[in-house]
Amino acid sequence: MRIRRVVIVGGGTAGWMSAALLTKVLGTGLSITLIESDEIGTVGVGEATIPPIQVFNQAIGMNEADFVKATGGTFKLGIEFENWGGLGDRYMHAFGTIGRPLGLTPFHNFWLRARQAGRADAGSLWNYSFNYQAASRDRYARLDRIPNSPLEGIVEAYHFDAGLYARFLRQGSEAGGVKRIEGMIMGVNRDGENGFIRSVTLKSGETVEGDLFIDCSGFRALLIGEALGVGYEDWTRWLPCDRAIAVPAENGPRLRPYTQSIAHKAGWQWRIPLQHRAGNGHVFSSNHMSEDEAAAILMGNLEGKPLADPRTIRFRTGRRATFWEKNCVSVGLSSGFLEPLESTSIHLIQTSIVRLVQMFPDLNFAAANIAEYNAQVGFEYERVRDFIILHYHLNRRTDSAFWTACREMAVPESLTHRLDLFRQTGRIFRENNELFSEVAWLQVMVGQGLMPESFTPLADKLSDDQLGRYLADLRQIIDANAGRLPGHREAVARLIASAV
Ligand SMILES: Cc1cc2nc3c(=O)[nH]c(=O)nc-3n(C[C@H](O)[C@H](O)[C@H](O)COP(=O)(O)OP(=O)(O)OC[C@H]3O[C@@H](n4cnc5c(N)ncnc54)[C@H](O)[C@@H]3O)c2cc1C
User: Fold this and answer.
1) Which Pfam family is an annotated match for this chain, by its short name (predicted)?
2) Is residue 210 assigned to a domain?
3) CB 50 near ligand 1, within 6 Å
């Protein structure tokens, strides 16, 4: 028996992304209702994304120019990390590849060989990143390949206003048949026998029935947590930050095509350039810093005039014990939270809803299907968690108790193994479709000061001369082509001029 009625609770980014994809791919024969409360509102932050968002936007048939125009969007080629490994350090997690593998040999092994041989011409790892070379010059163009070369071109994501994105998705979803109800849910009604959710009751007295419920109610987790009692696994022992102070401000003089993440004494600050303003926030640990001090640090590090009062958001890092329980699937903040250091929350919404589509149930709600979904989402959350812990753990900072505690903490076994393997051999492996690639792990490990003791013997197949020429050619192609790209500001202006 097919599911006919889907009820989405919540109209933030998670709610409207869910509505948009479900209408697009399963629309016919499915009645979709989304309930949101103006009185409660949305979390109101979330501006940086990662490249797979393009796949989502294409899947729902979104026009890029219209989307960038409607959301104040800009392009993002990576995240620059400042003061993370040590005070004064700076590196980028740039999207895309670095260098070029030869056969089965990942590129970084050639670079490591040259470094270990003491060759000064090897230079920085980021001399071989086209995204980095474009980003650091504030340049951008859509480019699949570097012309006349076998090298990959630019790999981009976006910065945008998530509130405007949700509004944009809402237009398309309502046009596609999604019914929106504005109102506050006061009660969740469950089946007396199997505990499934049958309906929700609004403040107005209206009752909305459904076969499948998607909980997009944000941190309050109205259905999965409050009604179904599914617990929350707390990861604060590894990720101690529990507050963010956010404030919009005028942009500085540059329109950077990358996010900035600047580490402070007990956390870090984001700067995200949109067309019309910059998003800023300070994520910190309330055990190590007062709110007043955190706000003062943030306000003292803006590039332009603040455009609103700063506001504090409290959170607890972790994940829902199960993401899908009975006939309820949690998507977005109700399913867990990882701080925005690697811009993963909107991505986790995307993968959850895509998985739900791929594992769409019927009215039998097969237990094996639910177990598979929970295992896949859990694995993804845990690997992203490890990647974020890595940034905190791998530091040499001695200027605050916070950084010392992060360096000295015991980290999950999965991360310890990865660090040991890289330190001893220079090897990195991507496991089971996990989100972050070898190149992402490489940049953070090298960027934060971890240089391997060795590299693969496969990298010895080039002679010293060949190695020198190989590296020099790559540097020259990347450098020359990055210098020829148009400016980021100009690229955004040209794109939005083509919007309808
Ligand atoms: C400080 C911070 C920075 C972030 N930065 C990024 C970033 O750079 N990149 C990124 O990808 N993500 C980021 N995120 C995460 C991102 O903001 C969220 O993942 C995303 O906005 C999804 O939120 P949501 O839709 O789950 O919840 P919300 O936006 O909180 O929406 C909840 C919805 O549920 C409704 N609701 C709740 N209770 C009821 C009720 N009783 N009745 C009716 N309706 C109800 C509300 O009205 C609202 O519509 C950040 C998060 C935080 C906290």
Assistant:
1) Trp_halogenase
2) yes
3) no
Nearest CA to ligand 1 atom 41: 185
Q: Which amino acid would we find at residue 21?
A: L
Burial of 251 (0-12, 13-18, 19+ CB in 10 A): middle
Range of the domain at 24: 5-74+160-234+317-379
Number of domains in the chain: 1
Where does the pLDDT of residue 395 fall: very low under 50, low under 70, confident under 90, or very high at 90 and above? very high
Q: Residues 202, 190: contact at Cβ < 8 Å? A: no
Which residue has the CA at smallest separation from atom 1 of ligand 1? 244
Q: Is residue 56 part of a domain?
A: yes
With the most atoms of ligand 1 within 8 angstroms of its CB, the residue from 39, 56, 184, 217 to mutate is 217
Query: How confident is residue 419, by pLDDT bands cut at 50, 70 and 90?
Result: very high
The reply to whether 346 sits in an annotated binding site is yes
- The domain that holds 44 is classified in CATH as 3.50.50.60
Among 358, 379, 375, CA closest to 434: 379
Tens-place pLDDT, residues 327-383: 999 999 999 999 999 999 999 999 999 999 999 999 999 999 999 999 999 999 999
CA dist 335 to 52, 233, 314, 383, Å? 20, 10, 16, 15
What confidence score (pLDDT) does residue 28 get? 81
pLDDT tier for residue 44 given thresholds of 50, 70 and 90: confident
Kindly state whether residue 329 falls inside one of the protein's structural domains.
yes
Q: For 123-152, write each residue's pLDDT tens digit.
A: 999 999 999 999 999 999 999 999 999 999
- Reply yes or no on whether 24 is catalytic: no
DSSP state of 19: H
Q: Are 291 and 245 spatial neighbours (Cβ–Cβ below 8 Å)? A: yes
* Strand order across the beta sheet in which 185-190 lies: 185-190, 197-202, 207-209
pLDDT in tens, 179-233: 999 999 999 999 999 999 999 999 999 999 999 999 999 999 999 999 999 999 9
Is 246 annotated for ligand binding?
A: no
Task: Give the confidence band of 284 by pLDDT, cuts at 50, 70, 90.
Answer: very high
Q: Is residue 472 part of a domain?
A: no
